[in-house]
Write a structure and sequence with these properties.
By secondary structure, the chain is an alpha/beta fold. The chain is built from 15 helices and nine strands. The strands form two sheets. It has a seven-stranded parallel sheet.
């Protein structure tokens, strides 16, 4: 198998040295419009696996609440896999918790989840707390970002993910109400989204102040799989534009599901990049919709290929992404905790093999 050849003859099996083989600043160069010798290979979504927890000694759920463990687990994604960036945290509950939701912290192989919805009956009294940055685990993520800046900031870009306003709103009110209100009470949902966007803006800017290079807004419940495109344009687009106007630094949107129907309005919101999953089948078409100013990120299947496939399956998807014009190579969604290190490394191997053959 070609992946096995690449592993045995080019990189060897010494995972701890893997990160030294790659160009570490590729990612920010892409967003700054510079020419790079290779498409960056990173993850804009959660990166932790059971194997990386064992290697780093930083396990869930403790690493969700401990700044140093959170950071060390992220660094292991570079040391062992070769990802050309570090990415924290590992769930989509941090901002929701700080705005009033209760959270179950999960287990070693299950992410934290929201278990209460303070706006389930009414949005009266829902507002951004005056001490937002001191609530819940926000201080943990801020401290972990600063720790990463000190330890690897000169070598690796730091990516921090936050819930988007639709995720925060749906967690505050419950997914059922969120969906029903989009049809029956759009004014109520719009107000809740506005409040959530205010929280996103404050949190994102604080992350940049702590040393983040890129903030990823993950807002999958705004995708056409759940929210009609007409509601998306009327409710979400104005708030995404406001977020992008008021947040400094490189901003990326991660959109789950089949994002094709909303790519055009997304491209006009002001994000520097759009991360998509495998349901976006035609990457060349998506690339054309976004235009040259917005980078296309993705879209190796996380739940299918990376979790259940072989390294050669990963290779096939990597080559497809590269040939169809992806700007940044990445898993299309959060990495499942039981994903093998071998499959994650295959992303890097296949990317480098592709460029090796191009130069021959």
């Amino acid at each position: 198998m070609r992946i096995q050849w690449w592993q045995d003859n080019y990189l060897g099996l010494n995972g701890k040295d893997l990160h030294n083989k790659f160009l570490r600043n590729n990612l920010t160069d892409v967003f700054n419009g510079k020419t790079t010798s290779k498409i960056p290979a990173v993850s804009f979504t959660q990166t932790a696996t059971i194997e990386l927890m064992k290697k780093s000694g930083s396990y869930w759920p403790e690493s969700h609440s401990d700044p140093e463990k959170m950071a060390l687990l992220a660094i292991e994604g570079n040391r062992t896999v070769g990802f050309e960036a570090v990415r924290i945290p590992y769930c989509l509950t941090v901002l929701s918790e700080a705005t009033g939701c209760e959270v179950n912290m999960g287990t070693a192989d299950r992410q934290p989840s929201v278990i209460s919805h303070p706006a389930e009956s009414t949005i009266e009294g829902i507002k951004v707390p005056h001490d937002l940055l001191e609530r819940g685990r926000i201080p943990v993520v801020l401290e972990s970002t600063a720790f990463l800046k000190e330890k690897v900031g000169e070598e690796l870009p730091i990516i921090v993910g936050i819930e988007g306003p639709a995720v925060v709103a749906s967690n505050l009110t419950g997914v059922r109400n969120y969906l029903v209100w989009s049809i029956t009470s759009p004014d109520k949902l719009t107000e809740l989204i506005r409040i959530a966007t205010d929280a996103c803006i404050e949190y994102a800017n604080s992350l940049f102040n702590q040393g983040a290079d890129i903030v990823v807004l993950a807002d999958g419940v705004a995708s056409p799989d759940l929210l009609p495109p007409s509601a998306f344009e009327n409710i979400m687009v104005p708030e995404y534009r406001r977020f992008c106007r008021n947040v400094k630094g490189i901003k990326v949107m991660h959109m789950c599901g089949n994002a094709n129907p909303i790519l055009h309005p997304l491209a006009e919101c002001g994000f520097n990049g759009i991360s998509v999953e495998e349901k976006v089948k035609n990457l060349a078409g998506a690339r054309a919709i976004l235009g040259s100013g917005v980078k296309l990120i993705g879209n190796i299947s996380a739940a299918g290929t990376l979790l259940l496939g072989s390294p050669d399956d990963v290779r096939s998807e990597v080559i497809r992404c590269l040939e169809e014009g992806i700007d940044v190579l990445a898993p299309g969604c959060g990495v499942a905790p039981h994903t093998s290190t071998e499959n994650l490394r295959a992303i890097i191997w296949a990317r480098d093999e592709y460029y090796l053959h191009m130069t021959r």
